[in-house]
Design a protein that fits this description.
With about 450 residues, the chain is mostly helical. The protein has helices spanning about 1-10, 15-20, 25-40, 45-50, 60-65, 70-80, 85-120, 125-155, 165-185, 200-210, 215-245, 250-275, 275-285, 285-300, 310-325, 330-350, 355-380, 390-400, 405-415, 425-440. It has 20 helices and no strands. Helix 14 (about 285-300) packs antiparallel against helix 19.
Length: about 450
Amino acid sequence: MASVFYFKVFSSFLMFFYTDIMGIGAAVIGTMMLASRIFDAANDPLMGILADRTKSPHGQFRPWLIWMIVPFVLSGISIFTIPDWSPLWKIIYIYATYSIAMIFYTAINIPYGALMGVMTPSSEQRSQLASFRFVGAFAANIVVQGTILFLVIKLGDGETETQAGYVKTMTLYGLCAAALFYFTFRSTKERVKPPKDQKSDFKKDLSQLVKNKPWVAIIFIGVSTVIWMALRDAAILYYFKYYVVGQVEDGGRFAKLATLFNVLGTVATLIGLTFTNKWTRFFGSKRNAYFALTVISAFVAACFYFAEAGDIILIFSIQIITSFLLGPLMPLFWSMIADTADYSEWKFGRRFTGLTFSAGTFSQKMGWAIGPAFAGYLLTYYGFVANIEQSPETIQGLRYMISIIPSGIALLASIIVLTYGIDGRLEKQMERELSKRRAES
């Protein structure tokens, strides 16, 4: 929940803030997000290696939740405190603050994600933990989606789109995130340790990691999944402001409809994730469930293209169904990563949980780099200009961006899922044999 207070703002509202409030071109922002996140994603394996080698009375991963709270909070607020400088220096400031914020996000989230791999050795319990994790994540989604546009108005002296409103809102979210990270630190425990005879060997860790075929597959699964989600998320505000509402000056109706659309989608996602274990059992494995839900949600999301601007009920219905189907994907994804850590220990006799989990944040960041950048380039390609009535070509482009284009990428993601080699039978075999080894050591 702490992470998503920032992550949801960055993924769904930041590009809109840059283009429609700060007046910066969509292609410029797309390039900035792509460059900054690729640079940051390269830091993920380094952070995983560092966390794996951390020794403290609080464990390997938990202390990072305390060490990084203040930098995490302040860096997120700084993104929105853009000075009234020349256009060039504004862009430089944006590059710098966004890159720094992503570094601190990495430093607190890779250790946090790795906690799931060391809190329990049970694959089924990790799926449950992943579900609990995303209950918190989607709860924060609801809070952000349901409050941000109204907080910006309230804290920005009653105006719909003000920089001051965003700065004050992010300060409030940052304080909430700090309290929640501290609570997480206090209420968790690390139980799964590396094999006793395992010695620190960076080169060996990396060489064995790239031989871990399920781990390699999970990177591409994560990147492709997040690209289509990020592209769709980036298009939502533009879709409502310029197509569904269609009146640039009608900020009140735009805020209400976009907020309700996002909140209902997140509630449906939250309900959907409670079915994670049921879908897994129904389809026979996490891999099969991930594949089936991705394919079905892609076809449902494509139906946005056929919705006219006045078809509010249809638009909201598609959102609810798509979001319900997407609910289990992220819990399944992170649970599958934990299983790849087991695979490494089972296959090669070495465990490096932090480095393994860096694949998750690496793939997500690459997806969130490419997806919003792609959205920015598409906006430019379709002739988007902020705060004016859009041309028919631009409107058509917005409809493609929320439907056909992301659905096509989702189908590509579903094909990649089939390369993940850990099925239900192998999950049980690894858990059984690893438990025996640990009992004998």
